[in-house]
Amino acid sequence: MELSQRISTILGTGSDGWDVFYRARQMIKDGTPVTELTIGEHDIRTAAPILRDMHASALGGHTGYAMVPGTTALRETIAARVQERTGVPTTAANVMVTPGGQSALFAAHTCLCDPGDVALYLDPFYATYPGTIRGASAIPRAIQTRAEDAFQPRAADIAAQAKGAKTLLINSPNNPTGTVYSRSTLDGIAKVCLDHDLWLISDEVYDTQIWEGTHISPRALPGMAERTLVVGSMSKSHAMTGSRCGWIVAPEHVIEATINLSTHTTYGVPGFIQDAAVFAMDQGPAFEEEIAAPFRRRRALAKQVLAEQNTVGLVPAQGAMYLMLDVRATGLSGEGFANALLDAHHIAVMPGESFGAAAAGHVRVAMTIEDTQFSDALRTLCAFAQSLET
Asked: What is the CATH code of the structural domain delimited by 5-45+286-388?
């Protein structure tokens, strides 16, 4: 008996690029201390007032089936937040609540792509993107960005791959590079979508973590609201990663399709979690800035540390909780450097190759440990790179 082709091929061929992460976790399990700078998990946990509200909601009885599209209160809160931030008219009918951003990405591709359709995405990419596309029975097609462009995608490169494609997935602020797409970049992306009749799926889960520049949602650009699906989440903005509460914002007929899909798959998000999400959003931008503050601070620390040497290069870290470091001067690949660093100093970082070919020779560092530890780990990384420099 064989499994389906869909699940058997979800990872494609070869390693999924997370070998260093798994090796670090095994070292920890075996008793070896490891400084983990790998995954995007806040080092602070969900704020106590949010948990108290969640607890009160559960004790109050909101533990049964919640409405599949999301509670009216949460859908209206998300819609108001999106409209205020983007200026695009948005109502609850444009919102579907999902079990996290990952579920939203899968739902978006499933609702837009037929089996065999080509779905475009940009390289470097968040590690689950190609598997999500394969899971929706579409064909992933990567478009490489360039380190010399600070990984800002070129419209001409997207257009060259767009013939016959159905969707384009973008992510700004970007994981793994920290790049925030400029207005000119997004104008170019929008033109390609309009010229080639592409749906645009915009992953905006890091929209509250902007260190330089301005976050622009492509849904706000002329002609794009009717062809854009925006993915959002409580995970990064409110440190609610384990609560699994995300959303899609899209045209009403697309939301109706996602509701049908959810009815036959996830069947919604627990009501007490949705109530807590409303409470969290009601705390306003100041609370979101409080959650983002450690990463803003550590990004400034990283710039100071990296300015003390010239072996490791820093891709402009404009947003999100990561740094993309160029280690090509060591003569090693990103994977080779990450493995060597783990062996020599028990510091775990993600190889750039985990996120696509465009990030070869780089490593991604998550800014997710205490400030002094973080600075010390970066100094050790840089000194190690200098010792290897060819």
From this structure: 3.90.1150.10
